[in-house]
Write a structure and sequence with these properties.
Blueprint: H1 11-19, E1 38-41, E2 47-50, H2 58-65, H3 73-84, H4 90-93, H5 100-108, E3 119-120, E4 129-144, E5 147-159, E6 162-171, E7 179-185, H6 189-195, E8 202-207, E9 210-219, H7 222-237, E10 243-250, H8 256-273, H9 276-279, E11 281-283, E12 288-289, H10 299-304, E13 313-320, E14 325-328, E15 331-332, E16 336-337, E17 341-343, H11 348-357, E18 374-380, E19 385-390, H12 397-406, E20 414-417
Parallel strand pairs: 6-10, 10-11, 10-12, 19-20
Antiparallel strand pairs: 1-2, 3-4, 4-5, 5-6, 7-9, 8-9, 13-14, 13-15, 13-18, 16-17, 17-18, 18-19
Helix pairs in contact: 7-8
């Protein structure tokens, strides 16, 4: 046995080594420079967490690695404190990359900038109304049997003229671990027998004083138990004049396991919603997805979860046509990175050469690239902002609008920047 095997030291090496045991970590490799040191978790070193110094608080670690200067730090602090009140040992696990609580926290803590999109239908009505949340709570406990049902996220708000409460169970990667048999408290047996009849391949029975849920093929059995528990607990504690909804939101690792989960969830929703008039709780018809129904409010968190639909592009551009229009080469934010900035590898010289080779009309008028105004869009990992480098003499609203449109930028996360490199005197204005 070789005892001198060198352990991976930097973030990229640790992510690479961990991804060989746990494939979900592959998606972090392109953004490894975002992180400082990372720590292994568990005996098998198949998961990672953000590094924490001896006297450092979890909150400080997350602020340093995931939040940016636009973040609502007070709202984040309050939400984190709520998470610690739950029964899932979140204070110990919150720094883990694949923490479902961390995923829920970063997507929902800031309702002022939240991108949550959902239309709710009053039960048995065709009209859908947009849900507008205005209050969020984490780890909401409701009594159930001898314990309690812990809802990961509870959103309160309105849909049309109705007061609405939406309860969400959050999953990151748990649903990828499949099983054929699970045992639960015997209290669940009558509920399983009532709600899970005729679901393909599923059966329930008593064994050794426990309720057994068994499947003829591997699937995520915990979903059935958790959603039934929440459904019962919400029904028993339901407030008058508030429409209660329940749903499951997951991070989408696309593949057969997610497809099976979507089918199982839909089958369960049909059975539970048939009891609406006695339970007064509606289970959302379809599974919700992080990145589709809800994106992170902070750009660094968007990058962490790979929600590219919410991200812009980086790259070089030229200003042509008497400073009236731009020609750009935008590329995905995950293209290339260094210690602080995410950038495109394409230089202005090479870009200009490509344009001349293609016969672009303005490049045929002048021999060298530096004879035209130019700029570049970068992403600053520390600030969590796009930096638009442009000559100070070219800052018309029309040019800036074109840059924002072509690079798919959110103006809220943009900052104009200036550098001597983009301020040559060679070009005329």
């Amino acid at each position: 046995m070789n005892t001198n095997t060198k352990k991976p030291s930097n973030a990229f090496e640790r992510l690479l080594a961990t991804s060989q045991k746990n494939p979900i970590y592959r998606r972090y490799l392109p953004i490894s420079e975002m992180f400082g040191n990372l720590d292994y978790r568990g005996t098998y070193e198949s998961s990672l967490s953000f590094h924490k110094e001896e006297k450092e608080r979890n909150e400080d670690v997350l602020v340093k690695n995931i939040l940016d200067e636009n973040s609502d730090f007070d709202a984040f602090h309050d939400a984190l404190e709520q998470l610690y009140q739950g029964d899932g040992n979140e204070e110990e696990n919150i720094l883990c990359f694949h923490s479902s609580s961390l995923c829920a926290l970063l997507h929902f803590y800031d309702l002022k900038r939240n991108t949550f999109s959902l239309f709710l239908r009053p039960n048995h009505y065709e009209v859908e109304e947009k849900f507008r949340p205005n209050e969020v709570s984490f780890e909401v406990k409701r009594p159930l049997f001898e314990h309690s049902s812990n809802i990961d996220v509870c959103l309160r708000g309105s849909a049309g003229d109705r007061d609405v409460e939406l309860n969400l169970e959050s999953k990151y990667s748990e649903y990828l671990k499949l099983s054929r048999k699970k045992k639960y408290s015997l209290h669940y047996l009558p509920l399983f027998q009532q709600y899970l009849q005729n679901i393909e391949g599923l059966s329930c029975y008593e064994e050794g004083g426990m309720a057994v849920l068994q499947s003829s093929f591997p699937r995520y059995l915990e979903m059935f138990k958790q959603m039934i528990a929440h459904f019962e607990a919400i029904s028993q504690a339901k407030e008058k004049n508030v429409d209660s909804y329940l749903g499951l939101i997951v991070y989408p690792f696309f593949g057969k396991k997610l497809v099976q989960l979507q089918k199982d969830y839909h089958d369960l929703a049909i059975r539970l919603n048939a009891l609406y008039f006695s339970k007064k709780v509606t289970l959302l018809d379809e599974l919700l997805l992080y990145g589709k129904n809800c994106g992170c409010t902070d750009l660094k968190a968007n990058l962490f979860y790979g929600e590219k639909d919410f991200l812009g592009c980086v790259g070089p551009f030229f200003v042509f046509d008497n400073n009236q229009s731009i020609v750009a080469s935008p590329t995905t934010l995950l293209a290339i990175e260094n210690e602080r900035f995410m950038n495109s590898p394409l230089s202005h010289d090479s870009f200009y050469g490509d344009l001349r080779w293609a016969g672009h009309e303005f490049t045929l008028l002048k021999e060298e690239y530096y004879q035209y105004p130019r700029g570049r869009v970068l992403f600053d990992l520390q600030k969590g902002k796009y930096l638009v480098y442009l000559d100070k003499r070219i800052k018309s609203q029309e040019i800036i609008k074109q840059i924002i449109r072509v690079f798919h930028l959110n103006p809220y996360y943009c900052e104009l920047a200036y550098d001597e490199h983009y301020s040559d005197k060679e070009f005329s204005l």
